[in-house]
Specification:
CATH topology of one domain: SH3 type barrels
Helix content: under 10%
Low-confidence stretches: 107-117
CATH class of one domain: Mainly Beta
CATH superfamily of one domain: SspB-like
Strand content: 25-35%
CATH architecture of one domain: Roll
Number of strands: 9
Length: 175
């Protein structure tokens, strides 16, 4: 029995976490000949899609593909994304999520050096921050970054404060 990929399970888990947390799940897709998305929105062979339940209709995240219909510039379009084309899934509001290493194309020899392909596997988020994929060996120690400053974290939006009253209202006595 062939081993099942963990990728679709991770995509479903991050999608559910985003929805439960009130975040907007975005799917980063590396477009290929099997991907069916509005090509006029594809840039540099990639597209980032809002896959929240509010933005999609009949969303299904299955082991082999992600399917839904959504409105693009007011027109309803059917989307089909093979799981192999999914580059990552993340929350729009804070960038947390997962990015997957690029899958080898059928018939291609896998490279032992992830940088040798010359491809840039980075993504710029709407808030201006950027994400990039990294390859980690199971034997590599996981070392948290130490160069983060408090200003590197994105604070959640705060509700507007009520307008301040300049002075206490006064009553005028009329005779």
């Amino acid at each position: 029995m062939p081993e099942l990929s963990t990728k679709p399970y991770m995509v479903r888990a991050i999608h559910q976490w985003c929805m439960d947390s009130g975040y907007t799940p975005y799917l980063s897709v590396k477009v290929d000949e099997d991907t069916r998305v509005p090509m006029e929105f594809v840039k540099k062979g990639e597209i980032v899609l809002n896959v929240s339940y509010d933005a999609t209709h009949q969303l299904t995240i299955e082991n082999e593909q992600v399917q839904f219909s959504a409105r693009f510039s007011g027109t309803s379009r059917q989307c089909y994304i093979p799981m192999s084309a999914v580059a990552g899934i993340f929350a729009r509001e804070n960038g947390q999520g997962l990015f997957f290493p690029p899958e080898p194309m059928p018939g291609a020899f896998p490279s032992t050096n992830p940088k040798s392909s010359g491809e840039d596997h980075s993504l710029t988020l709407p808030n201006g921050r950027s994400l990039s994929s990294v390859t980690v060996s199971p034997l590599d120690p996981v070392i948290p970054p130490t160069d983060l400053k408090d200003s590197d974290w994105v604070d959640p939006p705060q509700p507007p404060s009520p307008p301040a009253s300049p002075t206490r209202p006064k009553l005028k006595i009329v005779k």
